[in-house]
Specification:
Structural class: alpha+beta
Number of strands: 4
CATH topology: Zincin-like
Radius of gyration: 14 Å
Distance between the termini: 21 Å
Order of helices and strands: EEEEHH
Helix content: 25-40%
Largest sheet: 4 strands, mixed
Shape: globular
CATH class: Alpha Beta
Oligomer: single chain
């Protein structure tokens, strides 16, 4: 999956930025800021593209939770995001419109 530089999440433009190790104040592989409308993904050569895609889906979930002011525990968000990623990946599901469909 090619990770886009910007997403539309619930009508809000959210920038997706690859950060170098030590560039952000967080030590995780990815993070989201509702304040800055930004998702940071670690540009770490040890993280596979699949892992980065999973990080992106997790941060999209974080953005949806924040935008809707949902009170979900981080463990719940992580479980839903990783489960959804597994189902989408293992079944090669894509919801993008295809030409001729």
């Amino acid at each position: 999956m090619k990770i886009p530089s910007e997403l539309n999440i619930l009508g809000l433009p959210v920038k997706v930025v690859f950060r170098q190790d030590g560039e952000a104040s967080v030590s995780s592989s990815a993070s989201h800021s509702a304040w800055y409308n930004k998702i940071w993904i670690a540009n770490n050569p040890e993280r596979s593209p699949k892992a980065q895609s999973q990080d992106l889906l997790h941060e999209i979930m974080e953005a949806v939770v924040a935008a809707n002011d949902l009170k979900l525990d981080h463990t719940v968000i992580s479980t839903i995001a990783s489960s959804l990623f597994q189902v989408l990946s293992d079944n090669q599901l894509s919801f993008a419109e295809e030409e001729g469909v």
